[in-house]
Every structure is written in structure tokens, then in C-alpha cells.
Amino acid sequence: SMTIQAMLRGGTRPITLIPIYIGYEHVMEVGTYAKELRGATKEKESLPQMLRGLSKLRNLGQGYVNFGEPMPLMTYLNQHVPDWRESIDPIEAVRPAWLTPTVNNIAADLMVRINNAGAANAMNLCCTALLASRQRSLTREQLTKQLNCYLDLMRNVPYSTDSTVPSASASELIDHALQMNKFEVEKDTIGDIIILPREQAVLMTYYRNNIA
């Protein structure tokens, strides 16, 4: 909103909005996410809270930063609000009737572009497979086959040109995910069984929802 209003004050410099996807294999605030899913009010962040978070730092896995399709703002306005220049006033700040709905549409478009730039990784792929299984558990062989299915789909029929797919094999992704200590492994005559504990199930929806 402020960016467009600056343009309406007579700014001539071209502005381009860049959608950025930021993903993590481990998010410390995922517990807060689960509380918010149950209706809790979002807590305000504070310096003491950040300092307490430093003590929890451990193996946080990998981070991912992907750039989505840029949005040249002037081009967008020319297409969707052809007469926007009539609202330019270099002296007085104005809020034309089209401003709020246009800002909302731009925000929604940017969110789509951010989602289009999503990054699949070991955690969100394993969580997606285990949450879809009947007992939140699969043998390693079953999980490997399921991840191979996901990888084949994403590599051959990509969701978008901006999304990224890991180059590692399914087996390597499982090994990496197990290092995050989110899953349990039980030995069995049919092989290792990888289990998503019941108390972790809601928390792991955060990772699944990053790509689902």
C-alpha cells in the first residue's frame, strides 16, 4: 500500500516486487504454529524470547531461498488499473477507491508466486508420505518407493518453473530426514519401520503444508 502511494506522489522510478520463498527443514516456532491451528492468539515476539531461542539451536537442517516470478508494479497497474495515473498528486497523499482492492489482489498474486517457488526437501517429503499413511508409519522400503514417486512426479511434471526438487536419491533423503530426530525407527523382521509419533503428527503438518 505504501509503495503504491509513493508512486501516486509522483515517483517515476520503476519498482519491481520480488516474491521470495524461504523454507526450513526445522522450524523452532512450529509448536507455536500448532497452538495457532487450535485457535490460540499469535504471541508477540520479544528480545527475551529470541534469547531463549538461542539455547535451542542445534541441528536445524538446511534452509532454502527461492525467487519467484518478479512483478513490475507499473506494468501491473497499467494492466489492471489503466487510469491509475489520474490519481497522481505530488502534494497531497491520496487513497483512491481502487487502492485497497488492488493492494489485496497484488498480495494474493504475490502469495501464489511465492508458493510457485516452493522447495521440496527431505523433511517435507517424508512428512507428506507418513501423514498420508494409515498408521503414520511405513517400512523403509515403502517410504523409499513413495518418495521416488514424488520425485518422479516433480521432476517430470513440475508444479511450476520456479519450484525446486532435491537432486538426492530417495534413500539419501530418508537418511537426512532421520538425522533431524523427528521420526522413530523400529526394527522388524520385514525391515526398519519409520514412524511419525502421534504427538508429532500435528506439528509435522507444517512441513507437509509447505509443499502440499
From TrEMBL:
<dbReference type="Pfam" id="PF19277">
    <property type="entry name" value="GPAT_C"/>
</dbReference>
<dbReference type="InterPro" id="IPR022284">
    <property type="entry name" value="GPAT/DHAPAT"/>
</dbReference>
<dbReference type="GO" id="GO:0004366">
    <property type="term" value="F:glycerol-3-phosphate O-acyltransferase activity"/>
</dbReference>
<keyword id="KW-0808">Transferase</keyword>
<dbReference type="InterPro" id="IPR045520">
    <property type="entry name" value="GPAT/DHAPAT_C"/>
</dbReference>
<protein>
    <submittedName>
        <fullName>Glycerol-3-phosphate 1-O-acyltransferase</fullName>
        <ecNumber>2.3.1.15</ecNumber>
    </submittedName>
</protein>
<keyword id="KW-0012">Acyltransferase</keyword>
<feature type="domain" description="GPAT/DHAPAT C-terminal">
    <location>
        <begin position="33"/>
        <end position="211"/>
    </location>
</feature>
<dbReference type="GO" id="GO:0006631">
    <property type="term" value="P:fatty acid metabolic process"/>
</dbReference>
<dbReference type="GO" id="GO:0008654">
    <property type="term" value="P:phospholipid biosynthetic process"/>
</dbReference>
